[in-house]
Design goal:
Blueprint (H helix, E strand, L loop, with lengths): L3 E8 L4 E8 L4 H7 L8 H9 L16 H11 L3 E5 L5
Parallel strand pairs: 2-3
Antiparallel strand pairs: 1-2
Length: 91
């Protein structure tokens, strides 16, 4: 069962990286709603929260998650590349 697609490309001449994440699972927003941490959250707010450091719907106590999107975004943008997420109504 596929729940997403990740596409990345490195451009050696300009030393940039472009990364795109396509979410075709339940969506980032629904994941936050299912966690019961958020009753109302828009797709845009959920993606913004997911991009924050430790911005996961699954963080609890010592089980810290939510670094992947933050690091990937910082990495791509730090190399003057682009980073895109397509989830729900966000693109």
């Amino acid at each position: 069962m596929k729940k997403g697609i990740i596409i990345a490309q490195y451009f050696p001449l300009t030393t940039t990286i472009n990364a795109t994440i396509v979410d075709n699972g339940i969506g980032i927003r629904q994941s936050f709603i299912n966690s019961k941490k958020y009753k109302k959250i828009s797709d845009k707010q959920a993606v913004e929260k997911a991009l924050e450091e430790r911005g996961s719907s699954k963080n609890n106590g010592d089980n810290v998650r939510g670094m992947g999107l933050n690091y990937t975004s910082d990495f791509a943008c730090g190399l003057l590349g682009e980073f895109q997420i397509f989830s729900g109504k966000v693109n």
